[in-house]
């Protein structure tokens, strides 16, 4: 867009050139804003991935405890059922 705008400005009348340059500057600023927003979102997502990895690591021992408790309850239930 900018390259084509510059080419246009070399052959267009002054009033048209000013309008095109204004739109080019606006497009350039919009592009910078979009890229900045994308960078911020990427950083946020990378932080979220790190948090999820930390959460999974901290939840693993708890999951092992739950699994052991579930197994103990099942075994107890089986023994109780055998008594009846």
Q: Your description of this structure?
A:
With 84 residues, the chain is mainly alpha-helical. It has one domain. 95% of the residues lie in helices and 0% in strands. It has 2 helices and no strands. It has helices at 2-11, 14-83. Helix 1 (2-11) runs antiparallel to helix 2. The model has no long low-confidence stretch (mean pLDDT 88). It comes from Nothobranchius kuhntae (Beira killifish). This is Spectrin repeat containing, nuclear envelope 1b.
Provide key terms for this protein.
95% helix; 2 helices; 84 residues; Spectrin repeat containing, nuclear envelope 1b
Would you spell out the secondary-structure blueprint of this structure?
Elements: H1 2-11, H2 14-83
Helix pairs in contact: 1-2
Can you summarize this structure?
This protein has 84 residues and is mainly α. Helix content is 95%, strand content 0%.
Order of helices and strands: HH
Low-pLDDT stretches are none
Helicity level, as a percent range?
Answer: over 70%
Domains, number = 1
Shape assignment? rod-shaped
Oligomer: single chain
**What is the radius of gyration?**
32 Å
> Major beta sheet, specifics?
none
User: Which structural class matches the secondary elements?
Assistant: mainly alpha
Distance between the termini: 82 Å
Helices, by number, come to 2
Please state roughly what percent of the residues sit in beta strands, choosing from under 5%, 5-15%, 15-25%, 25-35%, 35-45% or over 45%. Answer: under 5%
Mean pLDDT: 88
Strand runs, count: 0
